[in-house]
Every structure is written in C-alpha cells, then in structure tokens.
Amino acid sequence: MDVADVAVRLLAVLLAFLLLPLLVGQGEHKVMAHMQGRVGPMHAGGFHGWAQLVADGVKFVQKEDTVPAGADRRIFQLAPAVALVPYLIVLVAIPIGPDGMVGQVVDAGIFFVLAVLGVGVLGSLMGGWASANKYSLLGGLRTAAQLMAYELPLLLSAASVAMAAGTLSLTGILGAFEWWWLPWQLVGGLVFFTAGLAELQRPPFDAPIAAEEIVFGAYTEYSGLRFAFFLLAEYAGIVVVSALTAVLFLGGWHGPFADQLGWLWMLLKTAALCFVVIWARVAWPRLRADQIQRFAWTVLVPLALAQIALTGVVKVVTS
Q: 7: how many CB neighbours lie within 10 A of its CB?
C-alpha cells in the first residue's frame, strides 16, 4: 500500500464511523415512533421528523458539562473516549466488499476485533467507578458481571466459524464461505448476536443502565457532549456487532453479482441486523440482573459449545 491508498482507506473508515451510527440513531427514533405510536420524533422539522437528530445534537451541545466534586476527574473525563474509540479501530478490520475493500487486513482478525470490543466496555466501568455515585458504581458492577458472562459465548461462537473456515482472518473467512454453512452455523450466529447485544447493554439486557432502578447506571453523572459520546458509542457498537454477525454468519458481501454489488449486500445485511436490535428494544421487557446471568451460563454457553462440537463433526465428515 502507498501513502495515498492508506489515506483513502482511513478516510473511508472515519466517514463510516461518523455517519453510520448517526443513521442508526435516526432510524431508532423513526422505527420506535412507528412501532409505539410516538408523536414527537415524527414532527421535528416537518417531513417525517427529519430534524430530530439535529435537535438532539444541539440539545447536547447546549447542556452544561459538569464533573462531580468527588469524582476522579481524569478517569471521569477519559471514560467516554475509551468507550467510543475502540469501535473506530474495529471498523478498520471489517471487510465491506471483495477485492480488498477493507481498511486493513488483519491475519488474526477475529481475535483482534473481539479483544478491542472488550476494551470498549471498560469505558462504562471507568465512568461508573470514577463518578463517586452509588448508582453509577452499581451500574458499573453490573456491566462488569455482564461482560464476564457474555464474553465467553461470544468467543466460542466466533471460534466455530474460524474452525469451519480454517482461518482467523475475517477476509479469509469470507473467502472460504459457502452458502451451505448457513443452516449448521445458525445457532452460533444467534449466540454471537445475542451475546453482542448483551455486551452493548441493549434491551432486553440493559439492567446495567436501568433508568427506573438506578437512574442511568454508569452514565448517571454525565451530561452534555460526554453523555452524547456514550450514546454515540452505543450506536457505533450496534453497527459493529451487526457487521461482524453479517461477516461471520451471513456471508458478508456474498450475494448475486457480488463482484459489483458486494458492498451493497454487506450494508443491507448490516442494516437488517440493526433493525432487529431496534425491534428488540421495543418488543422485549428488561431482564433482571440474575436472569441475564442465568441466560448466559445455562443457555448461551452450552449452545456455543454444542455449535463447536457440531462444527468439528462436519469438518471431519467433509474432509
């Protein structure tokens, strides 16, 4: 790669990072408005409430940026960046289309993206601990417990795909992808997507930020742009988890006329999974913290182990 090629790739990744989470946030406003009959988000600016996202941005900018007197100021101020930046780094390694349409090919791509995703969750832990607020601390502890529980099924389900493809590279997995993988990797895909939702603390796994119980969890003391960065990190996480699920379990850019339209198939699959994330928020009630833990250890982990066993059997038979 020359300097110009690297610059173009990095610029494309940065634009995707800045644009796609905002589109998901705007889409969540509209989808929830239709599903729940909400009036407000459909009127801001006139046609279909197009200015709602702009109004939200102006609101966050105008709010006072406060830091609690007893907080650890440096950690408190650093936490939003720790929550947000890892998703930008992960986007660099996610292939969008064939013929090298990726920010950077990483040989151990699965390990890289899952390790960096785990760093993003640390932002919530840092914010909860540094806020000097018992509700924030409780939210941070719930986040830590949830991360420990759901990291294992996330890794196991991804390992199943790596076994099937015989490589840890995301581009290599897509290069080895076959359509007959879909039915026997379906369970692993469901486990991966569900565990990803839990790590993002999205409903119904949002006990760490349960507004009715602990105000807003680790983010209780945040306001203004720092709070907006946490929200942006959530939407960026939705994009990243949906894109990874599409790459690992739905064939990524594979589809009719993939050489010309591969990037479009990847975006459509990612968008469909983002819609499922929004739909789950509307359709499912919040689980209790103990139910979330039980679901991880008694349902997702056994299913992920069963998927790995099935993958091993299929590999032996087909070889």
A: 11
> What is the C-alpha separation between 14 and 20, in angstroms, rounded?
10
- Residue type at position 67: V
C-alpha 225/C-alpha 231 separation (Å) is 10
Tell whether omega for the bond before 285 is within 30 degrees of 0, i.e. cis.
Answer: no
In tens digits, the chain (319 residues) has pLDDT values of 578 888 888 888 889 888 999 889 888 888 888 888 777 777 777 777 777 778 877 887 888 788 888 888 899 989 999 989 999 999 999 999 888 788 788 888 898 999 898 887 888 888 888 988 888 888 888 888 888 899 999 999 999 999 999 999 999 999 999 888 899 899 999 999 999 999 888 889 988 887 677 777 788 888 888 888 888 899 999 999 999 999 999 999 998 988 889 899 999 999 999 999 999 988 888 888 889 999 999 999 999 999 999 999 988 888 7
